[in-house]
């Protein structure tokens, strides 16, 4: 029989907390991405990896905070530990691929489209893999059009967030990008939940797995600690504290001579630096 699905068992508390967690992960991750674009290639992978972990952890934490307010009438909900861990890994890896593309290719054109698409697909994959880890006395069914809409929302909003992060125009752009990323994650989540129908079997068989309180509480400690670590690194970054910006150093290509500052001086200044030039007389010498 079809059962009643309630995604707001605690009212607006879980959606608001989930949105704040998504914004926090997005703010830290996108700030790390912005910072990476200002660095040389030797430092860039570290910042991009930290940003990927922050965004992936924020997405995962947001999802399961929202799921604590999710209930189904007539059956308890349990979660499979391995599948839950796998959803976190998928989020970090796929978001990382998208961020690395934008971090190295720039937040425009084909790179932005590809990076935003992969990042959005990572958000959607994390959501539906996490839903697949649920165990209950029933069957889950999804409306295909609504699922497709949720994936499009994730890809579009993730692309917009990466574009805003790539503008490197100050603190307000970072805040706007994090809000867009938060909307991408929460909008995708609740759109995907709207696509869900549950048919309860009514066999009264206990569901396999662990409850949300027993499993998700301890598991959230790791991602939350990672978010705190990323926040500390971002806050105490020298350029952010000083409010300055650092352009990435020029990368010398093989066969192209490096230009020193002396080459950029006017021709007249270079002549003066050489000193007086000996002039030859055109008058023929007498023998």
Automatic annotation (TrEMBL):
Keywords in alphabetical order: Membrane, Transmembrane, Transmembrane helix
Transmembrane domains' residue ranges: 12-34, 46-70, 82-104, 111-130, 142-164, 171-192, 212-236
Chain segments carrying region Disordered: 248-287
Domain of life per record: Bacteria
Domain MHYT stretches: 10-199
Compositionally skewed regions (Basic residues) per UniProt: 261-273
One Pfam match: MHYT
Cellular component, GO annotation: membrane
Protein name: Integral membrane protein
